[in-house]
């Protein structure tokens, strides 16, 4: 469960203060599929990045399963990124010269699991429909396939939360639908999904839509 109270991210440039997040209150229960929408600059990535320990707030509180991700030391951050959250980005950030298998295995290696990871990597690749591409170099894959590899990499450690920042932002309609199907399947399998999107159709596939404007939540509605 995620509990956010008064979450604030303030930037100060000279005498100007700018609130990327301006006092966000939000609770997300286990097993929810939440879409975060809102116009460019409204604070969506800032919120997701704080949840993923890629950024820290300037005020307010945030707990994920009782832990405040912004207060972890570097060792605990590594464990949190490995076990609690899996992050999927708009630009996939794969290692282009590594094979698909090695890209997906990377979080396991970073977590110190250097033994035979074949079962875990295989299961993650099967989940995204890419078992047959395991030995290919990542750079030879299409954009849609690369994003599916990135999803496999995000789930290989079996995190409870999937954080996805415009996962379909660089994909055409067919590939977007494929990625959305995978996120829906992950949700069905019990994951909590928090997805930033500009696309109303993609947002409608979530069960709750949170809309942001100028660093605030201006609407929060269930769709199902
Ligand atoms: N280092 C920084 N210094 C000053 N302002 C910043 C900094 N980083 C982000 N911002 C501002 O914070 C605001 C929120 O940014 P954020 O990336 O969260 O928006 P977003 O909703 O994800 O937008 P988009 O849809 O374009 O991805 C933006 O106006 C941005 O310019
Ligand atoms: Mg963004």
Low-pLDDT residue intervals, each spanning 5 or more residues: none
Share of residues in helices: 25-40%
N-to-C SSE series?
EEEHEHEHHHEHEHEE
- Describe the oligomeric state of these chains in a short phrase: single chain
Radius of gyration: 17 Å
- CATH architecture grouping: 3-Layer(aba) Sandwich
Structural class: alpha/beta
- Shape estimate: globular
Biggest sheet overview: 6 strands, mixed
Helix segment tally: 7
Strand content: 25-35%
Terminal CA distance? 20 Å
Q: How many domains in all?
A: 1
Which ligands appear in the coordinates?
adenosine-5'-triphosphate, magnesium ion
Looking at this structure, what is the CATH superfamily?
Answer: P-loop containing nucleotide triphosphate hydrolases
| CATH fold-level assignment | Rossmann fold
Give a brief rundown of this model:
The chain has 7 helices and 9 strands; from the N terminus they run E-E-E-H-E-H-E-H-H-H-E-H-E-H-E-E. It is α/β, with parallel strands linked by helices. It has one domain: P-loop containing nucleotide triphosphate hydrolases (Rossmann fold), CATH 3.40.50.
List keywords for this structure.
alpha/beta; Rossmann fold; 9 strands; globular; binds adenosine-5'-triphosphate
Helix and strand topology:
Blueprint: E1 2-13, E2 16-28, E3 33-38, H1 44-51, E4 59-64, H2 74-83, E5 85-88, H3 100-110, H4 118-127, H5 143-155, E6 161-165, H6 173-188, E7 192-196, H7 200-204, E8 208-213, E9 216-222
Parallel strand pairs: 3-7, 3-8, 5-6, 6-7
Antiparallel strand pairs: 1-2, 1-4, 8-9
Helix pairs in contact: 3-5, 4-5, 5-6
The structure holds adenosine-5'-triphosphate and magnesium ion (MG).
Magnesium ion binds at residues 44-45, 165.
């Amino acid at each position: 469960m995620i509990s956010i109270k008064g979450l604030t991210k303030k930037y100060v440039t000279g005498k100007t203060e700018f609130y990327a997040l301006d006092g966000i209150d939000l609770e997300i229960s286990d097993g929810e599929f939440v879409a975060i929408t809102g116009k460019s600059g409204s604070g969506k990535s800032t919120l997701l990045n704080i949840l993923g320990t890629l950024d820290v707030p300037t005020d307010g509180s945030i707990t994920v399963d009782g832990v405040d991700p912004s207060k972890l030391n570097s060792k605990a951050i590594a464990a949190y990124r490995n076990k609690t959250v899996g992050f999927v980005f708009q630009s996939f950030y794969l290692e282009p010269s590594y094979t698909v298998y090695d890209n997906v295995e990377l979080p396991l290696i970073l977590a110190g699991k250097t033994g035979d990871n074949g079962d875990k990597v295989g299961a993650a690749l099967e989940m995204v429909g890419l078992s047959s591409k395991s030995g290919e170099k990542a750079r030879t894959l299409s954009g849609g396939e690369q994003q599916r590899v990135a999803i496999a990499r995000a789930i290989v450690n079996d995190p409870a939360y999937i954080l996805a920042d415009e996962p379909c932002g660089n994909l055409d309609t067919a590939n977007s639908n494929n990625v959305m199907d995978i996120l829906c399947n992950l949700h069905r399998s019990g994951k909590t999904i928090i997805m930033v999107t500009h696309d109303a159709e993609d947002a409608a596939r979530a069960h709750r839509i949170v809309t942001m404007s100028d660093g605030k939540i201006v609407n929060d509605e269930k769709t199902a």
